[in-house]
């Protein structure tokens, strides 16, 4: 019906809970508009009754009702609009087990509940509509420590722990914005006995994030601009004219519009929230490509072996490098950073990953703006030692540089501003 908001409606219900299951009374919010409400292509392309309706899901949220509260607070509706705006703009969808780093109290208060996990709504089952299937994904508010645990291990594991702690969510995962303690403060055994053990045995099922990142090919002298097609898009251009840069961007943009597949091939995963989650993690991971050639023009996808590379991350992205190394590569898996400010992508792979174009002989290789870095287990262990201070962000001063000269690898952690305008 027009207007700037992506969602048409947000319904708000007073839910009496379930005393038998120890579920308290709460407010229940349900979005309308991520699925196809009209079937006439005005918002979503109608694809038939068998597939997903619109994006295939709607959001829900359960908020603990405060004593004496006669009407539901409206801020959860604004939160849903923010998440829906991201989905419409990026066309990334959400999935149960995903996490959303929000970095701010969800209700703009002083609350410790500053991030979100997503799971199936406990009451609302998937429904078949005339325009396709709709599932209902519930937003669950979590503390920073709980988000980090979900990243290091997996979202479903943390959701299960939240269900066992009544004040942290209980069986229906009701968000209490007044909760002042994390589940690990409430029950310290949960961290050691469940999370640490889970990380050790399962690793992390987070296989990719949207990030502020870039990379440079240090093997080419800066004045060598003979082959402009080798430029790493999204990083500092080397004597590329504005017209050349615009042509490359336009070609990539057209490719992205023509092909709805993600730039990086689905890695045993669906794409959501700028993240990839492995659905069935295995020791021997695979990077089987649905051919990035479907999107990146042919002349940009020659595989190039690089002698030396420089990786650049903002602080938030850099803080995930230990997760990438310990939770992914040491378990024979891969991890991808996809730039949110350009077309750049960086994928770390271990020697056990199949289908990678980086090899032990040539550990740095690029397909256009996509860089792959193969790291041996021995080198991963060494990097983890050298990068230990990434786990203490409060003691961090930017910029920070790490270098392994014999491996011809350099990593810089830089202020956000460097990535906000990469062409300057």
TrEMBL record:
Cell location: Cytoplasm; Nucleus
Domain Suppressor of fused-like: 3-179
Any one GO cellular component localisation term in the record: cytosol
Record domain Suppressor of fused C-terminal: where: 193-413
InterPro entries the record matches: SUFU-like_domain, SUFU_C, SUFU_C_sf, SUFU_N, Suppressor_of_fused, Suppressor_of_fused_euk
Family membership noted in the UniProt record: Belongs to the SUFU family.
Entry protein name: Suppressor of fused homolog
UniProt organism field: Podilymbus podiceps (Pied-billed grebe)
């Amino acid at each position: 019906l027009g207007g700037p908001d992506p969602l048409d409606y947000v319904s708000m219900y007073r839910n009496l809970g379930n005393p038998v299951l120890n579920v308290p009374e709460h407010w229940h919010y349900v979005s309308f508009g991520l699925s196809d409400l009209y079937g006439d292509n005005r918002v979503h392309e109608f694809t038939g009754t068998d597939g997903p309706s619109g994006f295939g899901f709607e959001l829900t949220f359960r908020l603990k009702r405060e004593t004496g509260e006669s009407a539901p607070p409206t801020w959860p509706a604004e939160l849903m609009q923010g998440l829906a705006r991201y989905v419409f703009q990026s066309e990334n969808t959400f999935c149960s087990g995903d996490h959303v780093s929000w970095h701010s109290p969800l209700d703009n208060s002083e609350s410790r509940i500053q991030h979100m996990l997503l799971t199936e709504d406990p009451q609302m089952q998937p429904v078949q509509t005339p325009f396709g299937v709709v599932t209902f994904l519930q937003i669950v508010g979590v503390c920073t420590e709980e988000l980090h645990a979900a990243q290091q291990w997996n979202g479903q594991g943390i959701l299960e722990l939240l269900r066992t702690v009544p004040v942290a969510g209980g069986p229906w995962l009701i968000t209490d914005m007044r909760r002042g303690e994390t589940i690990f403060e409430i029950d310290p055994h949960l961290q050691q006995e469940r999370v640490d053990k889970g990380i050790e045995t399962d690793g992390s099922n987070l296989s990719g994030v949207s990030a502020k990142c870039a990379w440079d090919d240090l093997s080419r002298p800066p004045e060598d601009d003979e082959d402009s097609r080798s430029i790493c898009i999204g990083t500092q251009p080397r004597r590329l004219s504005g017209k050349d840069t615009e042509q490359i961007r336009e070609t990539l943009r057209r490719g992205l519009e023509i092909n709805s597949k993600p730039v990086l091939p689905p890695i045993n995963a669906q794409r959501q929230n700028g993240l990839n989650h492995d659905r069935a993690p295995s020791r021997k991971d695979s990077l089987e490509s649905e051919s990035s050639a479907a999107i990146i023009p042919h002349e940009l996808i020659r595989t190039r072996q690089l002698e030396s590379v420089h990786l650049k991350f903002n602080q938030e992205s850099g803080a995930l490098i230990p997760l990438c190394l310990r939770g992914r590569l040491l378990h024979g898996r891969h991890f991808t950073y996809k730039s949110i400010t350009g077309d750049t992508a960086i994928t770390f792979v271990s020697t056990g990953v199949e289908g990678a174009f980086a090899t032990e002989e040539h550990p740095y290789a690029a397909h256009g703006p996509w860089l792959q870095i193969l790291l041996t287990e021995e080198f991963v262990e060494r990097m983890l030692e050298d990068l230990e201070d990434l786990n203490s962000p409060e003691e961090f001063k930017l910029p920070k540089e790490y270098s392994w000269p014999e491996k011809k690898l350099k990593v810089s952690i830089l202020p956000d501003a460097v990535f906000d305008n990469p062409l300057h």
